[in-house]
Each structure stands twice: as structure tokens, then as C-alpha cells.
Amino acid sequence: LQDTCGPHRRALADTILKDLGLRTGIALKGNIIEILRKAAERRPHGMTRDYYLCGLLLNRDLERFAHELPRYYVVSDSTRIPTHYAEALVLYDRTYPQPQPVYPEASTTADYRDFREMLTQNGQSAPGLVWEKYHNKYWWFYYRPTLHLQPKTKP
Predict the structure, then answer these.
(1) Contact call for residues 85 and 53 (beta carbons, < 8 A)
(2) CA distances to 14, 36, 113, 120 from 23, in Å
(3) Contacts of 149 (CB under 8 A, 6+ apart)
(4) CB 3.0-4.6 Å disulfide test: which of 32, 108, 116, 126 passes with 104?
């Protein structure tokens, strides 16, 4: 990790390693998601769990994310979870045929429905419209590579 980082990034890498309960200045070998999972098991509260869960989302591993999330957060219709986690659960619920029970807020589910409708209507002809409204949603990150959409550039 540190061998490929500049001096400023090296300090950030050391901070992350400390948060994970690992020695600083070491070269990490192996699957980073597994390293994060093990660290999250040792420290199930705080940033280590979020590094792990966000790693799953960045890898677009929705099945594993949906399975792991309840280990670290209470997922129910009466609790709130981080926004992008809720967005990922809505996507999981709509993508997999037999999903685990998910409890996203109604507004998150409605936003996803609107996003899919906008993609269908405007995705290829006006990707800028989709980007303007949804670029800060997990769904945009998840679908963008397969849609070949480019956000509107600013002058």
C-alpha cells in the first residue's frame, strides 16, 4: 500500500491502517476486502465496519453487502442507516430475485423508481439530465459503467 503512495498519501494510509488495528508501514498482501472484513470483525463499531461495507459497494458486490450489513447496523423499518447503504439496499431489492428483507425509507424507494424511469426515458438521449439529478446516488455509480453515460461537463 505504501510503496505505491506519495508522501501525503502515505500518512493517510498509516491513519487507515491504525483505524483498522494494523501496524503502520507494512505492505498489505492479499484481498483488501478480506483484510477489511477481518478488521471489521475485530472492531465492529466505527470506521472499520464502514471501510469494509464501502469496499463491498465499490466492488458492486450487492449480495455480500446485503448479507453483511445487518452484522454491523440494525436494519429495520424503524431505524435509519447511512444514505448510500439505503440506496444500495433498494438496488439489491430490485436486482435479486429472492432478496433478504430490506427496509429502505419510502422516499429512497421512490427516488430509485424515478431514477430508473428517467434512465429509460432520457438515459441515452440526455444523460446530462440523469447525471444532474442522480450523480450523488449510489445507483449512478453502480449503473454508469454499463450505460456508457458521460456527465455533462461544465464550461
Answers:
(1) yes
(2) 8, 14, 45, 49
(3) 123, 124, 127, 130, 131
(4) 108
